[in-house]
User: Fold these one by one.
Assistant:
Number 1:
Amino acid sequence: MTICLFTFVDLYSKGLGTLDNLLTKGVAFAAGQGVSEADMLEWRLIDDMAPLRFQANVVLNFARQWPARAAGLPIPADMADGLDVAGYKAAIAEAKAYLGSLKSEQFDGRDATPITFNLGMMEPTLPAGQWLSSFATTNFYFHLSTAYAILRSKGVQIGKPDLFAGGL
């Protein structure tokens, strides 16, 4: 199956816009509740689940790293732990700029290029198109949706349209 890998660049950029919107709304709500931004970033859906900051890190990492892998480019470093909201906003802007610098030609003919990636319990080799369309995008949206769910569970007034805040 041939996939236009470059289409994921725009998809991830829009998702980053959604993350930015969610953080903005979360900060406004938290401030109204007398909750610091630092405490908001530690909000969790349930106690044994990773906090909002982790969800944001994964979204940012997947948005930058998986298109780079698919295009055969150097892999951007993982996001720093412990960013504040301003740091996340800057990281989102940087990630969107990085994605904006990518060109469709960098992805041409790479659908079937094998990529081996360590998942901890296994290290499969799959075609770039399969990694990007299935594994990376599923994880990207899982963590973006979890960030949404964390904020919603705390009472932030967001709805389904906020998942499309980055554009359709």
Number 2:
Amino acid sequence: MSENQTAPVIPPTALSAAALDEQRKAEKAARMLEMYSNQSFKSTRTIQRMRLRLIAWVIRNKINSNLKRAFDLVVVCLAMPFVLPVIGLMAIAIKLDSPGPVFFRQERVGKWGKTFYCYKFRSMYVDAEARKAELMAENDADEVIFKMKNDPRVTRVGRLIRKASIDEIPQIFNVLKGEMSLVGPRPPVPYEVAQYQFDQMRRLDAVPGITGLQQVSGRSDLSFKRWVELDLQYISEQSLLKDVEILLKTVPAVLTGRGAY
């Protein structure tokens, strides 16, 4: 081809049907965007309507948040007379089984990335964190979560209280402090959050909970991807009725011990 010749123009008919469809969609989106930017916000009525919707959304979320908090406090206060004797018995059992503190305190990540210390009954030997690195190759979970079905760091009492989820009971004090809720996504540790993909960060858009949709759907038997999907489903659907439903489902989930280790 000489310098004076131009490249042949490919007629529209030569384009694939898919390319033409994509082109039409892009042109339609551009026209809609132009109409929206030029007209929508020129109307005083439209502006007022948007303000009212935003105010209603904020008020609704605030009311739901306050109802959830009030529900948590009422349930915890009602359960406290039954929980305190269990805490006393567990303290004796843990002390007799292995040396170390009764409670285990670990930094966790809460709503919108705010960190706090999560309380649990100690179910492992005191050198558990130091031994974790040597066990990473035997991880039974996937992606960012570390779980072992036969973790050698777990004590004899620890295996029992983990199976029955009794080790989570001290987290009612996190609920009283407002750091956790009865129902919500499980609070991750900072090193897990550091490995999150962008969409997985949405797990932090809710107050973490002692139990949740993931806990009543298989717990540690679930893949991390499915875990995230269930947490995001809860966040999008959360309500007081949903919390009551999950709490009721938690009872048979704990009794069967499915996915707990």
Number 3:
Amino acid sequence: MKKKLNYYLYRYVFPYIGLWVVKLIAFTHRMVIMNPENERGCITRDHGLIYISWHQRFFPGITFFATRKPIAIMISQSRDGDMAAHGVKILGWEPVRGSSTRGGREALNQLNELALSGYKIGHIVDGPKGPFGVVKPGLLKIAQFTGLPIVPTVTSAQKKWSLNSWDKFMVPKLFSRVIIRFGEPVYVKGELNEEAFENMRVEVETRLKALYEDTDRIWDDPEKIRLLFNQQPGIMNLFTGRHRNQSNC
């Protein structure tokens, strides 16, 4: 009986409650998109892309990337992964179950098939449990399998809560300003020796870290904040997918 109750809670109760809270918080955010041409170019030229993010900053992406359908994400085959997979399914994402330790090859094949049919891919580079800020090799393998470019996708909030987790997971506070910024695409060759593979992994990690740091510094510059938010008023509607406030600043 206890197992059945837990299954019901994890399958049908917790995901819906969690997503309701996420949507409620996200609805209050004032959001702008920086460098949208990096995303648009990949969609036009490559017919898809791989959005990448740190686990720590993923909160704004939960609802934002639901507007980028069709989109798939790899999720581990663990019990925690079961709840996460059900949650993203509710949002309209396509969960692909697998990881480097279990079901990885099958998951890569499935992601490749989805990419060929027009799906974009989302990937948390240091999830689910770190170490923080370290790009794991699985990202490059996904890029090699699918042939899609990697696009660093960073989020930054002016006001935020930091949770007591392994990566100090950040949640933008109610009514906070939020930036979503697309970096320049990175292309990974299908064949790389061990040294070249590691060099590419470090390059992606370095680019992503630099983009986060550069975006976070905007909050120290009142003029940049004014240009981004005051001259282009509006709040993104996460429920319809329509948005304003696109900027190349």
Number 4:
Amino acid sequence: MLLLAGFVLNAQKNIYESDQFDELSKEHKVLAILPFLTHLDLKDDLTKDELKALEKKEGLAVQNALETYFSKRKKKKKFSVAFQNIKNTNAILAQNDISYDNMDIYTTKQLSEVLGVDGIISGNLDLNVLLSKGVPTEFSIIDYFLGKANYGRIGIKISDGDKGKLLWKYEKEINKKSGKNTDDLIDRMMKLATRKFPYDREKRKERRRQAN
């Protein structure tokens, strides 16, 4: 229990929420989840094109894992917003000549207008392994001394589509305790952040009670 409490407290320390969140998000109904921009630092001898293809694959895996997580909790009516189907998101982006390679040159406001949503969920992923393929999770103190226990870092952020303002951000180190693959990682880290997730219905009710 102490270990779990430590994880939760650590998760909360890595979470930022704008003091304008309530004001800017009060009309939010639908959010889009974008593929995550990924940087891979692999020891494999890969060409530039091969590395780019793998980075895109990892970024799409996080997008898919987030949709799966939100879909499961949405069925339990946990959220006050809906999430655009990622197949539709990616199709609309492609129809407007916006690809994984040039997505970062567009503003949040531009992407929201193209996708017809109220806000954007996006993020960055830095990895030295292919998380989507699965990673070993067995604990070994030797791995920590040799630097083999840390796999990278992930940052998830939510931005308002109208003003383009950053509303919420969660950063987390990825290591052997984070999860065995992308789905497991997202499921674990979002569960730790649940009490701080701004669109959680219970969190919003609590804030209204405090305001009154």
